[in-house]
Amino acid sequence: MNDGGKALETEEAVAILRGEKKKLRRKEKHARIEQIRANLGLSDSQRTPVPGESLREFYKRTNMYWQMAAHEHTQHTGKELRKDGFDLAESRYKELKPILDELAILEAEQKAEEAEGAETSSGKRNNKNKKNKAPQR
């Protein structure tokens, strides 16, 4: 192996020891979450199920949106329009469900890591405060 490769390995090892890899991983997760949200238009609440929401709850909450979307394409009315709207909502729900589940897992992991990082840093602060205080007599 050449010297450049060894230097890179050393830098990676130092980064791991300092915990910099963990920060990078958090940033990567955050970037992945934002990328998924942007690509699928998840900011539109009328077209996106809420995490943990069933298909029935999703359609009940957004039925007017789906019926209007169906009406633009089919010109149906009444029962046919409601069925077409439900079919559109069901299609969107099934398309997004696995992705939303993955997002929920990523967000939970990220929150756990952030909480762990906060506990670690607050623990370090508490230890410094204990060391800096002189014993009182």
TrEMBL record:
Residue span of region Disordered: 111-137
Signal peptide range in chain numbering: none
Coiled-coil portions: none
Composition-biased stretches (Basic residues): 125-137
Domain DUF4110: 41-127
Pfam families: DUF4110
Protein name in UniProt: DUF4110 domain-containing protein
